[in-house]
Amino acid sequence: MRLANFVTARSGGLRTALRELGAGYLAAGHSPVLVVPGNRFADAETEQGRVITLPGPEVPRMGGYRVLLDRRRVADTLARLRPDHLEVSDRTTLRWTGNWARRHGVPSTMVSHESLDGLLRLFGGGNGRWLADRLNARSAAGFDRIVCTTGWAAAEFERLGVRDVARVPLGVDLDLFSPDRHDPALRRRWAGPGDALLVHCGRLSAEKQPRRSLAALAEVRAAGVPAVLVVAGGGPLRPALQAEAAERGLPVRFAGHLRDRTELAALLATADVALAPGPIETFGLAALEALASGTPVVVSAASALPEVIGTAGLAATTDASYGAAVRALLDRPDRRVAARAQAERFPWSASVAGFLSIMTADRAGAGRRATGTA
User: What Gene3D superfamilies does UniProt report for this protein, alphabetically (predicted)?
Assistant: First the structure.
């Protein structure tokens, strides 16, 4: 059984990961159940298994994120479904479910999809590291195992001496996101003849630092390279970004959230360079989708993304270095081949197999403890 918070109704990397992992569990013969927050109750069989939606309030100014705050209803759902394994994708408001699982003899895993250390450093002031360490220690104590998608994400637990931190990378749909989806007509729609087409794909929120993508465009154009930027995604910063682009005279096209994933795949395959400036990304599915589409990525050197993109992109730290990295990638004749080759190291099948191996080991360990043979 899986629990997740901070899931939007339409998009997001966590939503993608939950869907792909659930579909993989189902294909492997398991009966996955996912419980998420929504505006009303629902219970449906889907391509990723059974999905139960419990009413949860929307987090103000967060672009549609909802949370499960009714502990009694969540606990009743857990008791009714009697899971043989609990996988939780939220280390804050759902941390209590680890203790519920322990009391009921259910092995539990907390999947770290975000950097608490990074979030608190961005928004929590000088005490961010201290507070993150305290909360992470509680998460590690509450669950049987922590799963991180990169070494960068695991570091905030490992520095505390936490044992049982597993590393399982996420994946990418290599059929949907492919260089074959390059679309000359789409390119003519967004860019003029001779323009370099840059793309920023992701939520327009503070932790993603989308303003860096506008700054990169300005640096590239100041260096004499004609370029336009397409921003695919919505969020609370969109009005401010639109105003800034207009004030600076930057050719930025705001496409909004692309509900049709084939349209997104075509945009990524048609772009020349993608930008992923978020400094606290623990994996970066959007960047990996760009690589699978044959498009190199400029990422934040402070995030986990350099670990994911390898030599198929470049890392940057300042506005000027983002622009320089874009220009360097535009000059690489083999950039598309290298990008695709890097993405092919991350099929979803490998991610599913990694998560399932952890569940199997945890259930076996729980069985040995229950029989006194551990």
Answer: Glycogen Phosphorylase B
- d(C-alpha 220, C-alpha 216), whole Å: 6
Q: What is the pLDDT of residues 45-102, one digit of tens each?
A: 999 999 999 999 887 766 677 889 999 999 999 999 999 999 999 878 899 999 999 9
Q: How many residues in total does the chain contain?
A: 374
Q: Rounded to 5 degrees, what are φ and ψ at 194?
A: 85, -5
**Encoded tokens for 170:** 């996420």
Distance CA 359, CA 166 (A): 11
In this prediction the pTM is 0.91
Which domains are delineated in the chain?
2-171+348-371 (3.40.50.2000), 179-343 (3.40.50.2000)
- What is the residue-wise DSSP string for 305-372? HHHHHTTSEEEE-SHHHHHHHHHHHHT-TTHHHHHHHHHTT-BHHHHHHHHHHHHHHHHHHHHHHHHT
**DSSP state string for 207-222:** GG-THHHHHHHHHHHH
Task: For 4-54, give the secondary structure using H, E and C.
Answer: ECCECCCCCHHHHHHHHHHHHHHHCCCCCEEEEEECCCEEEEECCEEEEEE
Pairing of strands 2-4, 86-89: parallel
C-beta of residue 45 within 8 angstroms of C-beta of residue 93: no
DSSP 253-313: EEEE----HHHHHHHHHH-SEEEE--TT-SS-HHHHHHHHTT--EEEETTSSHHHHHTTSE
Do 46 and 25 touch, CB atoms closer than 8 A? no
Backbone φ, ψ for residue 84 (5° rounding): -95, -5
